[in-house]
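Our working data are protein records whose layout never changes between entries. An example says more than a description, so a record of this kind follows.
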Amino acid sequence: MTTEELVGKVAVVTGGANGIGRATAKWLAHRGAKVYIGDVNLLEENKVPFAELGIEAQQCDVSLEADIQQLIERVIQEQGRLDILVNNAGIGMVKPITEVTEAEWDACLGVNLKGAFLGCKHAIRQMQQNGGGVIVNTASNAGLLPRQHDPVYSISKMALVGLTKSLGLCHAQDNIRINAVCPGPVCETGMMNADLAQSSDPEAMKQGFIKASPLAKALNRMITPEEVAEAIGYLVSDAAQFVTGTMIAIDGGKSLGVSQVGS
């Protein structure tokens, strides 16, 4: 469905080539926004659908300040403004802390936390000149409670939640709203597909993700990227004008606590 509620708005989505980022970029474009996506891996399959929606794509490693700066400078040069930033780029890290190398720590925190910091840093400067804007960070249910199997990933997402709250407070005076979504388990994302591909029993792993979330178990399915995009869409809309520093959990109740003995 195409509407015009975001006509005149300019948006950047990092990690926009697949999964939640791609679904969000399409959601924004369908509502009239001019959308730019940044990703380290620009997929050939996106060329035609992105062109049809007017979505521009640029290679971007969010852990490198020069890449983020170049992406946002291009947007300002071509559009003259930036209204929406979705810091969606992220990577996983499933290892006990004793086996995580320094390079792996730096990579995980570099994309998941530093990438959002750099995006916010350069976007906020432009939004202040516009008289306001909206930033949404893609965190995780791992940002709401620690997880045993991926502590470094959890640390990166909990820090991202802290960044969201802190900057939401700092920049409310600039009419810049900063919120986060905390999804999981989401199907058809680069991270999820990579985990399943590495598993000796992908179906068993998939069922494990489903059973870990009360609503996912009840519905016998994972969350879709499009469902997360809808929540991001709410946060960037005028309906959320008084919402800042907020985390929306889209995890089927996974982050609420232990749902049954032995789970």
Observations:
- The first strand starts at residue 10 and ends at 14.
- The mean pLDDT is 94.
